[in-house]
Amino acid sequence: MSLIIFLLIGLLAGFLAGKIMKGRGFGLIGNLLVGVVGAVIGGYLVTLLGFSASGLIAEIIVATLGAVVLLAAISFIKKA
What we know:
- Belongs to the UPF0410 family.
- It is a multi-pass membrane protein.
- It is found in: Cell membrane.
- By secondary structure, this protein is mainly α.
- The protein has one domain.
- Helices cover 82% and strands 0% of the residues.
- It contains 3 helices and no strands.
- Helix 1 crosses helix 3 and helix 2 packs across helix 3.
- 32% of the residues are buried.
């Protein structure tokens, strides 16, 4: 069950990051991939800063933050 919740959070985070960074989503699979990878990145960054995310809303925020960082990095690499 926790895997399903993790994937749903990743899907929502990818959707939100797509709206924040590009103004549109990336489709179901794209949003899921961006969100799941973003959740891992966001979790790492938050832990690195000495914080922890507990609760569903905090996990969505951290995953979205990580997904935005991922999309910003991809955009930066594409422009270079």
